[in-house]
Amino acid sequence: MHLMNAKRSRLVIIDFQARLMPAIHDGPRLVANAGKLVAAARLLDVPIVMTEQNPAGLGTTVPELAEAAPAIAKMSFDSCGAPDFIDAIAGDEDLILCGCEAHVCVGQTALSLLENKRRVLVVQDAVGSRTPENKEAALRRLERSGAEIVTTEMVVFEWLRTAEHPQFRPAARLIK
């Protein structure tokens, strides 16, 4: 394990969709934290990849995050089942995952990425499920499988590394 590095990271936003979010436990807080990650990624030039599960059925990405990146539509729960997703994450960057649902699309995506020897970090305060039990079970399983469980603040401050970073003030304001 090593510190996250903005130059070696890619933020992956999975299925924060309008019709799904009202059913997600603590949804508004999760969306707000994902928004902080997006803003920090933009400040620090971290590439962003975003998916939408069955957008015809579940709607498009919530307005707060819709501008983060062009969404990759998928029908498979595992984002790796979408060829456009595989193309978008080509390389060896650390993959910072947030989204819904922790025990379905986020979980299956993380497990596939781990099988393919990618470093996966799941942002626990920016992933959700309909029930806390499903989220907790997913996070335990993912951690046992090799994913690192982190928080929004851990990501932002590891990307910055120092209070002398030129983007420190605007990035730190995102957290307060």
Shape summary: globular
Mean pLDDT: 96
Series of H and E elements: EHEHEHEHEHEHH
Uncertain parts: none
CATH architecture title:
3-Layer(aba) Sandwich
Give the total of domains.
1
Which structural class should the secondary elements be placed in? alpha/beta
**Could you name the CATH class?**
Alpha Beta
Sheet having the most strands: 6 strands, parallel
Q: What is the distance, rounded to the nearest whole angstrom, between the alpha carbons of the first and last residues?
A: 28 Å
> Percent range for helical residues?
25-40%
The number of helical elements comes to 7
CATH H level, superfamily name: Isochorismatase-like
| CATH topology-level fold name | Rossmann fold
Rg estimate, integer Å: 15 Å
**What share of the residues does DSSP label as strand, in percent?**
15-25%
**Counted beta strands:** 6
Strand order of the largest sheet: 3-2-1-4-5-6
Domain Isochorismatase-like: 11-153
Protein name: Nicotinamidase-related amidase
InterPro entries: Isochorismatase-like_dom, Isochorismatase-like_sf, Isochorismatase_domain
Pfam family, one: Isochorismatase
